[in-house]
Write a structure and sequence with these properties.
three-stranded parallel beta sheet, alpha/beta, six-stranded mixed beta sheet, single chain
């Protein structure tokens, strides 16, 4: 946690969500374009990141017109092999975060630099669709959704799973964000904490009120076990987070069916399905964070208000839709600037935060400090306050003095066989 607080002081309060996607190109030999002259580079600036701490050197410019490198090749490297691949020189920069343990092992590698940035937040999305006849969906009951806030152990996630390279979250706004000060008293007043016994008491009361029976420590409804389909991502520490949450849900009496899936299958199961079909009950989400935003208007809408299409139902025609008129009304006012003063704007933001906490369709867990490795002789990296080297300027300005091309690695890279939509 000390490392996090030092990082927070160097960053300021920051935050806005974005997702960085990479393309790919065919491999080829370096061209005969003239190499960059090291003498053209001015003294380096002090910047954040790296195995040398927050004062790692960052060159200011490459001293030539246009992009610094003539070619950039994007290649896919699995996150578990990425440490070996970057040590072997197979790539110059890896823009998918290393796992925390791997980053620690690489931190003292002489030829590499690790850039740290609070570039990810993680959450649980719960399926609040109404129960089908003869069945029960526990998350259709608001009180049970709120109980999950107390069932997740954020401190364990932060300190044990991420080894201190994260900070707990309870709302859409991170403690590292500017607008956290706007809602600080609301967050503190909510008194959200890890209290599994209290959570189980709420779950027991509400499940019994709904007609369920606890038999041999397992919930049943109409003589059938209550099953929860839990979609868990496996590429990063979210697998361990999912296992932790699954253990708590099992202890609370639910039969949990884990579904360990990578990016595309998980997204297809959750965001491309009708919540009323119950292909999922909860899912470990991960969100990329981009440039700092002084006054949040997009994130709170994206993560709370149904009108923007990121709440269960996804605004897909024919799907069951999570609806909340109050959140939509307030969210549209905030999004369009329909207020007369900062005080009025802040009150809209505060009210949305209160309502979103009360609904608890999305359970926030942590802001994660990502670790991006790069070759130590890679110059011209632009470090964003939130996304670190994933700044769009890095790909334009990064270079090596002895070559005219770079190889940038990522876990997910577009290919001709990728099933992403190239149009919309």
């Amino acid at each position: 946690m000390l490392r996090i607080m030092e990082l927070a002081k160097s960053l300021g309060l920051v935050g806005l969500l974005c997702i960085v996607l990479a393309g790919c190109g065919p491999s080829s030999e370096p061209s005969s374009a003239p190499m960059l002259d090291p003498s053209q580079n001015p003294e380096t600036l002090k910047g954040h990141g790296g195995s040398e701490g927050i004062d790692a050197p960052v060159p200011a410019t490459h001293g030539r017109p246009g992009p610094a490198s003539d070619k950039i090749y994007f290649k896919a490297f699995h996150v578990d092999r990425a440490p070996l691949d970057i040590q072997s020189g197979a790539m110059d920069l890896y823009l998918f975060s290393l796992k925390t343990n791997a980053a620690r092992e690489l931190a003292e590698t002489e030829d590499l630099r690790i850039y740290d940035a609070p570039a990810t937040s993680i959450s649980l999305i719960l399926n609040p669709a109404p129960s089908r006849p003869g069945e029960i969906n526990p998350f259709a009951i608001p009180e049970i959704r709120r109980a999950i806030q107390y069932l997740v152990n954020r401190e364990f996630i932060v300190n044990d799973i991420y080894r201190g390279m994260a900070v707990p979250m309870t709302t859409q706004v991170s403690p590292l964000d500017y607008d956290f000060l706007t809602v600080y008293d609301i967050v503190r007043g909510a008194d959200i904490r890890y209290d599994s016994e209290y959570a189980r008491q709420i779950i027991k009361r509400e499940m019994e009120n709904a007609g369920a029976l606890l038999i041999d420590d397992r919930w049943t409804y109409n003589e059938r076990p209550v099953r929860l389909k839990f979609i868990t991502r496996v590429e990063d520490e979210r697998r361990e987070v999912g296992d932790l949450v699954r253990a708590e849900l099992t202890q609370a009496g639910f039969q949990v069916e884990p579904g360990y899936r990578q990016f595309a299958p998980a997204v297809l199961s959750v965001y491309s399905s009708d919540p009323a079909s119950f292909e999922w009950h909860l899912y470990t989400e991960g969100w990329g964070r981009g440039a700092p935003d002084r006054y949040d208007f997009a994130t709170i809408n994206q993560m709370s208000a149904p009108w923007l299409g990121n709440m269960p139902g996804w605004k897909e025609v024919g799907f069951w839709q999570y609806e909340h008129n109050r959140l939509d009304t307030l969210g549209k006012r905030l999004f369009t600037g329909d207020f007369e003063s900062q005080t009025e704007r802040n009150e809209i933001y505060r009210e949305m935060t209160r309502v979103a906490l009360d609904e608890s369709v999305r359970i926030w867990l942590a802001t994660v400090v990502n670790n991006f490795p790069a070759q130590k002789d890679l110059r011209g990296i632009t470090l964003d306050l939130v996304s670190g080297p994933r700044s769009p300027w890095t790909l334009r300005e990064a270079y090596k003095v002895d070559q005219d091309h770079l190889t940038v690695g990522h876990l997910w890279v577009w290919t001709e066989r990728t099933t992403w939509n190239p149009i919309g």
